[in-house]
Amino acid sequence: MQTRPAIPLNIAALPKVDLHRHLEGSLRLKTLAEIARNEGLDLPSDEDQLQSLVQLQINDPRTADAFLAKFQVLRMFYCSPQIIRRLTVEAVEDAAADNVRYLEINFSPAALASVGHFPMAEVVDWVLEAAIEAAERQDIGLRLIAGVNRHEGIDLAEEVARIAVDHFDRGLAGLSLAGNEIDFPADDFEGVFRAVKQAGLHVTIHAGEWVGGNAVRKAIENFGADRIGHGVRVMEDPLAITLAKEKRMPFEVCLSSNLMSGVIESLDEHPITQMMAAGLQVTLNTDDPGILNTSLSNEYALFLTHSDFSIETIKGMILTAVQAAFIKSSEKKQLERELIEELF
Ligand SMILES: [Zn+2]
Q1: According to DSSP H, which parts of 75-168 are helical?
Q2: Whole-angstrom distance between the N-terminal and C-terminal Cα of the chain?
Q3: How far is residue 239 CA from its own chain's centroid?
Q4: Containing H/E element for 340?
Q5: Exposed/middle/buried for 110, CB within 10 Å: 0-12, 13-18, 19+?
């Protein structure tokens, strides 16, 4: 399976927008090896040996569990505020190096706080400060999204939601629901998401990734989702398609992620083509560039390789992502103007 086609220069040069990128899945292998060595972690400090623990390998089972297992290893690295800041800065720098001009980073305060038993509110401060400073240095637009996992329970989600609301408008624009969709349905979290939405935050729900389109409908109707993370199985549910079209609901599609986590068998069979043909609002994103060894340019190159679409379609998708960004409409207009000038 070809997951790293040569990236055409015209794709690398496009100014891009990434709305779905997890901080914990965006770490540099070289940095992780250095942390393992310097902090004396019970992990290999050799990049080659570390790679199979933190990056999905071609021989790994293509399952949600195998994917989520990498995050369990990655949790061991967040041992100090300095490391959390450094990893955040590097994630922003890597996006900027790929010509991402507007980036939303999704991070799990609980994951980053776990090893050092740090107060989650402080972790959120560290990530926000480091990310905002890095984005200013790189001259790119940025917002952060606090994430909660289904499998980590409602109490933790409520605490993260409270902290997210406290940090609203300080660079933190939304709350997301991720995690194991198969064994932990989203229903219990409805109230938490309704409440943050009332407080002005945006909401994005991972849904219709490992389970069917019904989950997409629930995310829209019950959670008030502003965007759907993945949502690729929407095509199995005609009612969900109709609802998503009515609401002009943006989908955060991530090709390599879907392939490597077993959502699809092959990229040629990815439903993105049908989603676009159905008139859905489709954006392309990285999900976890570190774990998947990908970049946004690589995702666009894969899209072109495995579909009949052209670079003109990609330009339209980038502008769709601008409209779906968790920023004020005046900022959207400004970003759109800047990108259109370069894209066309
Ligand atoms: Zn995700």
Answers
A1: 81-97, 109-114, 120-138, 154-166
A2: 33
A3: 26
A4: helix 329-343
A5: buried
Residues 6+ apart with CB under 8 A from 207: 181, 186, 215, 216, 218, 219, 225, 228, 229, 230, 231
Domain extent for 301:
9-343
Measure 93 CA to ligand 1 centroid, in angstroms. 20
Q: Which residues surround ligand 1, an ion (CB under 5 A)?
A: 287
156, 188 Cβ separation under 8 angstroms: no
In this model, does residue 2 exceed pLDDT 70? Answer: no
Distance CA 344, CA 340 (A): 6
Active site residues: 209
Give the distance (Å) from ligand 1 centre to CA of residue 309.
24
Please tell me what DSSP assigns to residue 187.
G
**Does residue 1 fall inside a structural domain?**
no
pTM of the model: 0.96
CATH number for the domain including 18?
3.20.20.140
* pLDDT digit string, tens, across residues 265-305: 999 999 999 999 999 999 999 999 999 999 999 999 999 99
- 163: exposed, middle or buried (Cβ count in 10 Å: 0-12, 13-18, 19+): buried
186: confidence class by pLDDT, cuts 50, 70, 90: confident
Note the pLDDT of residue 168.
Answer: 94
Q: State how many domains the chain has.
A: 1
